[in-house]
Design brief:
- 40% of the residues lie in helices and 22% in strands.
- It is α/β, with parallel strands linked by helices.
- The protein has 2 domains: 1-105 and 267-357, Isopropylmalate Dehydrogenase, CATH 3.40.718; 119-257, Isopropylmalate Dehydrogenase (3-Layer(aba) Sandwich), CATH 3.40.718.
- The strands form 3 sheets. A 10-stranded mixed beta sheet has the order 2-1-3-12-11-4-5-10-8-9, with helices on both faces. A two-stranded antiparallel ribbon has the order 6-7. The chain has a two-stranded parallel sheet with strand order 13-14.
- Bound molecules: 1,4-dihydronicotinamide adenine dinucleotide and magnesium ion.
- Magnesium ion binds next to helix 9.
- It is found in: Cytoplasm.
Length: 357
């Protein structure tokens, strides 16, 4: 397969971790006979320094032409005095919008090798955690109209509107069912259908989509219960699909139970199946340039790219297996050292994964 990929290494630890993720990608392509074309572009602080803008037009054009985009991280203290649209983070928001990314996939995976770093009870996490939160990203209460503040009869009001149309629900539901087909074939749709009208539509449309996927088991859960169940027994879930607001909260909750920000990848997809793949952590200015960063979140983001944008399941699994092997052998970057092991730097961690492939 030919893969045309744009790399946006960005700032801070972004370039270091991108380098390791790319080495892994190249090794997989080699091993499985794929052809990867890589183009590097600027985003964030480095783009501001070079062009005055966090998201140069050249970057947007290249990303739109690519089959998939990989992003390291953006931002850092150097640009903290800039405001609003001129900040590095504006580049990230901009590219998400330009690419029409409506689905955010955040796996909360705890490798059993790291289970002692998790604060949940040992008997709950001894086999690790593996949950995928699929969050709708472009609709719901963050964007619904009307929204605003006004004074009526001398009293101040503030309001937002949670609105979804059936097309928006259908496409995020399909994304979740497609993801479930590549996993344990279970989808839990999270809503507040006991109170919210918009949730009743959500639920009805998800049921319709479920009919297209007879192999996948669908359940529904109210969001308040889901928040509780995620920490009580995370492994009852395979794929969780939900709207923008509920997904914002639940994906952070799911991430924190796994313990380390340096381990978690993410994917954001658009309707053409292309997407942006990035670790969930930021640019970690405190450790940037010191060969201390954990490259595994980035390496695992490459695995998500292969699985979700290119449907290369064997290749994605090979990367995840190699990561697990390295962890089982006891190699750790500083952020995952809590249970001891052999301390290695960013480069060595990347090399080890490449070798185990
Ligand atoms: P951060 O995720 O960069 O760092 C938080 C803590 O986690 C730090 O102590 C850092 O050293 C550690 N950490 C993060 N990634 C790690 C890794 N791969 N290996 C080992 N340790 C790691 O979040 P923070 O400090 O809030 O933000 C720093 C900068 O990053 C800010 O400018 C922020 O705006 C930006 N940021 C960018 C994001 C992105 O590009 N998607 C996301 C979050 C923050
Ligand atoms: Mg959030």
């Amino acid at each position: 397969m030919d893969m045309n990929i744009v790399l946006l290494p960005g700032d801070g630890i972004g370039p270091e971790i991108t380098e390791q993720a790319v080495a892994v990608l190249k090794k997989v392509a080699d091993k499985f006979g794929h052809n990867v074309t890589l183009t590097e572009e600027l985003i964030g602080g480095c783009a501001i320094d070079a062009t005055g803008k966090p998201l140069p037009q050249e970057t947007v054009d290249a990303c739109k032409k690519a089959d998939a985009v990989f992003l390291g991280a953006v931002g850092g203290p150097k640009w903290d005095n800039l405001d609003g649209a001129t900040r590095p983070e504006a580049g990230l928001l901009g590219i998400r919008k330009e690419l029409g990314l409506f689905a955010n996939l955040r796996p909360a995976k705890l490798f059993p090798e790291l289970s002692s770093a998790c604060f949940l009870r040992p008997d709950i996490v001894e086999n690790g955690i593996d949950v995928m939160v699929v969050r709708e990203l472009t609709g719901g209460i963050y964007f619904g109209q009307p929204q605003g503040q006004e004074v009526r009869d001398g009293i101040r009001y503030g309001y937002n509107t949670m609105v979804y149309n059936e097309d928006e629900v259908r496409r995020i539901a399909r994304t979740a069912f497609e993801a479930a087909m590549k996993r344990d074939k279970r989808v839990c749709s999270v809503d507040k259908a006991n109170v919210l009208e918009v949730s009743r539509l959500w639920r009805a449309v998800v049921e319709e989509v479920a009919a297209e996927y007879p192999e996948v088991e669908l359940s529904h859960m109210y969001v308040d219960n889901a928040a509780m169940q995620l920490v009580r027994d995370p492994n009852q879930f395979d794929v969780v699909v939900t709207g923008n607001l509920f997904g914002d909260i639940l994906s952070d909750e799911a991430a924190v139970i796994t313990g380390s920000i340096g381990m978690l990848p993410s994917a954001s997809l658009n309707k053409s199946g292309s997407g942006l793949f990035e670790p969930i952590h930021g640019s970690a200015p405190d450790i940037a340039g010191q060969n201390k960063a954990n490259p595994l979140a980035s390496i695992l983001s490459m695995a998500m790219m292969l699985r979700h944008s290119f449907n290369l399941i064997k290749e994605a699994n090979a990367i995840e297996d190699a990561v697990q092997k390295v962890l089982r052998e006891g190699y750790r970057t500083g952020d995952i050292m809590s249970d001891g092991g052999t301390l290695v730097g960013c480069n060595t961690m990347g090399n080890l994964v490449v070798e185990r492939l």
